[in-house]
Design brief:
The complex is a heterodimer of chains A (about 110) and B (about 625). By secondary structure, chain A is an alpha+beta fold. In chain B, strands 3, 4, 5, 6, 7, 8, 10 and 11 form an eight-stranded mixed β-sheet that branches. In chain B, strands 1-2 form a two-stranded antiparallel sheet. In chain B, about 50% of the residues are buried. The chains are: A alpha+beta (about 110), B alpha/beta (about 625).
């Protein structure tokens, strides 16, 4: 599903951010492909609010609809340490996939 | 003496900042809203030079501390060239002798990304771990020693608002040294060093920075994703090792922040804030203060003094007309800038700085984002649009914060077409009050809103390209610090006046020439049939439109004396609001957006004003309402 479809208040894992710029900026904010964020919420008539650690990020709807996420299946409480390791592996998988498909994202 | 930012753009080897020999360049770097300016002010004292960075419109502050030069940089989340702010920060940082990296202890996951990047750049770094008090309030404990050990640089815990830790940070700067480098990354950087002079620039080339690569005549390397993700992992590891947080529940401030972004609560709050701004700017400043500065001081004392001085030298011929006549370069420019604009711009920047420092602006951007995307903008564009109600010239300059040229064009055109500036707004409100009807006021508001929306939709549809999406980080809500607000207002106002005074003078000269040559009067005659037959307004209304070329409020004020009825007032107000922006705005639009776009906006607003105004006049006549 996309970030726009994420269920309110539930943790989600970021799978893919296709746009180059947005991906780099998100990594700087602390959210990379593979990161498990605390929650995402599509605000009524507004953007998607993503909470991660003590931070809040607003993502416009169109951008949010291009970002792929998955609902977190594991116990959210255990995420702190485990997510970082799985995140690393996951990111490599995504990066490999992207290279294979020749996907470079849009260049702004 | 303060150091100067050079007047040429950074290029091959030429330093962008000139520092005296033997002086170190101490550069402050950090994410936005982390308290960098408090460090800067404490380090440099009062003698600060603020100037536009060469080739850009980003303000850079510089000052001296002992024998050293201190430079502030715009807040950035990383060093690269995604926008003007980053380009400026990048060029200053890569030339630094020492970097004081101010990091927000509460948001270490975010802030350490820049810290580690600065360390990867091989620069001598000292980290000021700021907002330690807030971190404690959040139930966080940070092992500062472990953090310093991992980064390989000094980390000084600070609380900038009470200047705690400043002496230690200053002292640490003298022993600043490069931090722990990642061995793999270091190898790759070393491989580039023979082609690119410094580790810092080599890293940026490796991260695919096109500008730095071009500077060294090589192709940027596309390793950004990989390096960024790796750096992200290193940062996460560090944070996991040094930060303990007991409580992750949402505090009151966070909840309040959410309420400001939710339509049901956010819209009423925004409405109240805008109303208060209107009361402060539109009523107190635009009417009372400007009445005094423009009417009493400038027109009462200054202008007569200048006129008699010029008359005694130049007589009352053409030269007098051009210098001190109705549109005299000297008189009109001075009155316009000092009497009218200065109070308005100070008022607006004061309020804007309060909103900025409180953290409310990004939340307004979130609240209005969806609405703005419909007209090809994103939430960030609400800032220049709100400013447009103050002064279109000032707001046009502010469109630089928008994501790309397409967005800047849409916002500029919308303001030029459909947003009345505060000077004009004052007269409009008075006319609406004179017309005496709530109905007229509502009709005027509704028509303007409709035109704004339709023009926006049209531009979004027909301007080529795509607009950028909102992607912003929300700073915590805070009480603004008065000193900071005053300093910001002062610097912004000075920059604004410095940037536009020449345009006002040029505008006045142009009008003076039109008047002296009789072209202005001839235009009045040409316009007359349009006003009488199509708009159903008295012939003299043409004068108001001609005046509107000069200054939007002149135009509106000209209508005041025509003794119009309710329907006539509505037609006149809609027409004059949609009519061309003032001559200074036109010149600034030309500078910012180019000639073709200016012609489009200018002609477009004439056509739009007379079309919409005429349609309303015809509708009123057809319906038979007065």
């Amino acid at each position: 599903m996309t970030l726009l479809q994420a269920k309110k208040g539930c943790p989600v894992r970021i799978i893919e951010i296709p746009d180059d710029r947005a991906r780099a900026q998100c990594v700087r904010f602390g959210i990379g492909e593979g990161t498990l964020v605390d929650s995402a919420e599509t605000m009524m008539a507004g953007p998607v609010l993503v909470r991660h650690c003590n931070q809040e990020i607003c993502v416009g709807r169109k951008l949010a609809s291009s970002i792929l996420v998955e609902a977190d299946t594991k116990d959210a409480a255990a995420k702190d340490t485990s997510s970082r390791e799985t995140a690393g592996k996951h990111v490599e998988t995504v990066a490999r996939g992207r290279r294979r498909r020749g996907l470079r994202g849009r260049r702004a | 003496m303060t150091p100067e930012v050079a007047s040429h753009h950074a290029c091959h080897g030429a330093p962008v900042v000139q520092a005296p020999e033997g002086a170190r360049k101490i550069v402050l770097a950090g994410n936005p809203n982390v308290g960098k300016s408090l460090f800067f002010n404490a380090f440099t004292g009062l003698y600060v030079d603020v100037s536009n960075f060469p080739g850009t419109t980003v303000a850079v502050s510089s000052g001296v501390m002992g024998d050293d030069v201190v430079l502030d940089t715009p807040g950035v989340y990383g060093v690269s060239s995604f926008n003007d702010e980053e380009t400026v920060a990048r060029d200053i940082i890569t030339e630094a002798d020492v970097v004081l990296n101010v990091a927000d202890a509460v948001h270490l996951e975010r802030d350490l990304f820049l810290t580690v990047q600065l360390i990867d750049m091989g620069l001598p770094v000292v980290v000021a771990l700021n907002m330690m008090d807030e971190a404690e309030q959040h139930g966080m404990s940070i092992d500062v020693e472990a953090l310093a050990a991992r980064l390989g640089v000094d980390v000084i815990p600070t609380v900038a608002t009470s200047r705690k830790g400043f002496d230690e940070a200053k002292e640490a700067l003298s022993r600043a040294h490069p931090g722990t480098l990642d061995p793999v990354l270091q190898d790759r950087v070393l491989g580039l060093l023979d082609r690119v002079g410094t580790t810092a620039e080599a890293l940026l080339v490796l991260e695919g920075d096109p500008f730095v690569a071009e500077r060294h005549g090589i192709e940027p390397l596309g390793a950004r994703d990989e390096i960024y993700m790796d750096r992200r992992r290193r940062v996460n590891d560090i944070v996991a090792a040094v930060v303990r947080q007991r409580d992750r529940s949402l505090d009151l401030r966070t909840r309040l922040g959410h309420a400001l972004m939710r339509p049901l609560t956010g819209v009423p709050v925004l409405a109240v804030v805008l109303w208060l701004m209107y009361e402060a700017i539109g009523v107190v400043v635009a009417q009372t203060v400007v009445g005094f500065t423009e009417g009493t001081v400038m027109q009462g004392y200054v202008e007569p003094a200048i006129r008699s001085a010029i008359e005694s030298v130049a007589g009352t011929g053409v030269a007098y007309q051009l210098l001190a006549g109705e549109f005299g370069v000297v008189t009109l420019t001075l009155t316009y800038i000092l009497g009218l604009l200065l109070p308005l711009v100070i008022g607006f920047y004061l309020l804007l700085s309060v909103l900025e420092d409180s953290g409310y602006l990004p939340r307004i951007a979130a609240l209005t984002d969806r609405m703005m995307t419909a007209i090809g903008l994103n939430g960030r564009a609400i800032i220049p649009i709100i400013l447009g109600f103050g002064c279109i010239t000032m707001a046009t300059i502010t469109t630089r914060i928008l994501g790309n040229e397409r967005e800047r064009k849409i916002a500029t055109a919308l303001m030029a077409f459909a947003i009345p500036c505060s000077a004009q707004l004052g007269v409009i409100v008075a006319l609406l009050a004179a017309a005496g009807g709530l109905g007229i006021t509502i009709a005027y508001g509704a028509i303007m809103f409709l035109v704004f929306g339709l023009v926006g939709l049209g531009l979004a549809r027909y301007l080529p390209g795509t607009s950028t999406d909102l992607l912003i980080d929300l700073p915590p809500l805070r009480l603004p610090r008065p000193m900071n607000v005053l300093q910001k207002t002062y610097h912004k106002t000075v920059m604004f006046v410095r940037e536009v005074w020449l345009y006002f003078a040029a505008g006045a000269l142009l009008l003076g020439i039109l008047q002296v040559t009789g072209i202005l009067e001839a235009a009045q005659g040409v316009l007359a049939p349009l006003t009488e037959n199509w708009l159903h307004l008295p012939r003299e209304a043409a004068t108001a439109f001609i005046m509107g070329f000069v200054r939007r409020d002149f135009g509106a004020a000209g209508l005041y004396d025509l003794g119009l009825s309710g329907g006539g007032i509505l037609v006149a107000l809609v027409t004059i609001t949609l009519f061309v922006p003032c001559i200074a705005s036109v010149l600034v639009i030309m500078k910012e957006r180019g000639r073709a776009f200016t012609v489009f906006t200018w002609l477009g607003s004439v056509v739009l004003a007379f079309t919409v105004g005429g349609l309303i006049a015809q509708a009123i006549a057809w319906l038979g309402v007065a």
